[in-house]
Amino acid sequence: MPVFNTDIFYNSKIKRELTITEQVTVDQYRQELVAEIRKAYYTVAMADGIVNMLNETRKLLEENVRVNQKLVDNGKITIDNLYRAQTEMSKFDQKVQVAAKNMEMASAYLNFLLNRSLTEPIILSEPDILPVLAAESDTWRESALTNREELKKLNSYDKITALQLQMNQAGALPNIMIVADYGIQGEKYKINKDADFAQASAILTWDLFAGFQNRAKIRQAKLQKEMLDQQSEEVRKQIELQVINALNELKSAQAGIESATSQVKSAREGFRLVKRRYEEGQANLIEFIDARTTLTQAEENVIISRYTYLADYSEFEKVCAINKI
Fold first, then answer.
1. Which of 78, 169, 245, 251 is most exposed, with the fewest beta carbons within 10 Å of its own?
2. CB 291 within 8 A of CB 270
3. Number of folded domains in the chain?
4. Domain that residue 225 falls in
5. Would residue 206 count as lying in a domain?
6. What pLDDT shows up at residue 39?
């Protein structure tokens, strides 16, 4: 049994730190997966919202085709207006098909991340309240620098390097072991006080001269520690930059929601007025189609803006290391 052995002592501590490092790696992967799943979910929800919006808008086009058919039958308008309305319907159906395809692809990717069947149905629920920021940027930077797994991993590597340095510096110390033997002896197997024997000894080994090997190991460990310190400082700056960029993206997305909401209100009112004038014969088909297209684009922009904000918020949570599960 070793009584004093610096290699065993420090190697045991190094193994514990390596175990911690592996756990940090697992935690890092988990946090990245959480953010990716959330963003994939919001992509599915956004695609679903667009499909539903387009299906509702299609009802307006169906009604427009029906009204134009009656007007043509009664000789109120020429048939080219009906053809134009039918063409718009066909173009719109193509857009609906593209949106449905995007929805299917987004759902398959989300199921892939969840390790489920790619065709598994996804239950969606639109958030009533969007998350908002309630702290200053310094708070988020501090959270990131405290909780990010990258820095935790580098901290563990720094401890491992320090332990390696201490182990190499302790190489000049002796190693002490105790050896104990017990058995029986004689011409026959007998267990008594005359047959058994015991022996104990202490062994001391001391490497008095190992050339320049130990000195080189110490110098190498010191260089590794300096490199880790520089790398840690660089990673800290990168993390701070990521927090600033993610925060700016989030603020921009929040402003985009406000702008899109204002646009859709104006577009709805404009379409309502043009629709009334069109039904009264005071606006032509082109004006009606233009107003309807503007409204559709505005409503689509609102949906995209909302879920873009949610996806950016998920990325912000990951960057600031607050998306714990």
1. 78
2. yes
3. 1
4. 2-173+213-319
5. no
6. 92
Task: Calculate the average pLDDT of the chain.
Answer: 83
Q: What is the CATH number of the domain that holds 92?
A: 1.20.1600.10
Residues 179, 21: Cα–Cα separation, whole Å: 36
Encoding tokens for residue 270? 């404009």
Q: Which two tokens stand for residue 80?
A: 């080219």
This prediction has a pTM of: 0.76
Distance CA 56, CA 52 (A): 6
Give dist(CA 210, CA 2) in Å, integer: 21
What is the spatial distance between Cα 65 and Cα 97, in angstroms, rounded to a whole number?
Answer: 20
The C-alpha atoms of residue 294 and residue 277 are separated, in whole angstroms, by 17
For residue 158, is it within any domain? yes
Does 3 have pLDDT greater than 80? no
Answer positive or negative: Cα dihedral of 260, 265, 268, 273: negative
Average of per-residue pLDDT across 159-180: 76
Quick one: tokens of 293? 């297209």
Residue 195 lies in a domain: no
